[in-house]
Design goal:
By secondary structure, the chain is an alpha+beta fold. The chain has a domain at 71-181: Glucose Permease (Domain IIA). The chain contains two helices and 14 strands; from the N terminus they run H-H-E-E-E-E-E-E-E-E-E-E-E-E-E-E. The protein has helices spanning 2-32, 47-53; strands at residues 71-73, 76-82, 87-91, 94-97, 103-105, 110-115, 118-122, 126-131, 143-144, 149-152, 156-157, 161-162, 164-171, 174-176. Strands 1, 4, 6, 7, 8, 9, 13 and 14 form an eight-stranded antiparallel sheet that branches. Strands 2-3 form a two-stranded antiparallel sheet. Strand 2 (76-82) and strand 3 form a beta hairpin. The longest helix is centred in the N-terminal third of the chain and has 31 residues, at 2-32. The protein starts with a helix and ends in an 8-residue tail after the last strand.
């Protein structure tokens, strides 16, 4: 038996040592894995972590999608190339596809503020900038409820392209990913 074990270690010992090392590394990685910091942004948390974070509040914090279209350009803290003008720009926003004259709705309860051609929906916790919405349906200072119609899709957003609604969500003055607040 000793001769067989010795022969096994001589012929395949390095494989067994490598396997043992891999197991130790895997176990140590699992053992030391930690949850995200309490101040992690919603984009850094998965769905169950966001739900755990808001369990003390009456309901989970989800926004209504302001337009039905798919996300065509996601939130990014890195520069993004814009084909329309061949530019590399930062894009801390989320672009949703819109249909011509589609109704755009309020993602959450808040007060309206127009600044140039951008509509802002604001409450105590968030400020959401909408680009690609036609003015005229709601006025500055008006209070709206989640799901209320704010206007219709403009059809074009400079640098972004056609049939786009550009959404930039701010929490405590910092741009965050609005898609993290959409129900799955």
């Amino acid at each position: 038996m000793k001769k067989k074990m010795k022969a096994l270690f001589q012929s395949a010992g390095h494989y067994m040592l490598a396997l043992l090392c891999a197991a130790v590394i895997l176990l140590s990685a699992l053992w030391t894995r930690t949850a995200p910091a309490p101040d992690a942004s919603p984009a850094q948390m998965n769905q169950s972590q966001r739900l755990q974070d808001v369990t003390s509040s009456p309901a989970p914090l989800f926004f209504q999608r302001p337009a039905a279209g798919k996300i065509i350009r996601p939130f990014s803290t890195e520069p993004v190339f814009f084909d329309t003008y061949h530019l590399l720009r930062f894009h801390p926003s989320t672009d949703l596809e819109t249909a011509p004259e589609e109704q755009i709705t309020a993602a959450f309860d808040g007060r309206i503020r127009w600044e140039g051609n951008a509509l802002y929906l604001e409450n105590d916790a968030f400020s959401l900038r909408y680009k690609g919405i036609l003015p005229g349906h709601v006025q500055t200072g008006q209070q709206v409820k989640k799901g209320a119609v704010l206007g219709t899709a403009a059809g074009f957003v400079p640098y972004e392209g056609e049939n786009i609604l550009c959404l930039t969500l701010y929490r405590d003055g910092e741009a965050v990913d609005i898609a993290a607040y959409f129900p799955e």
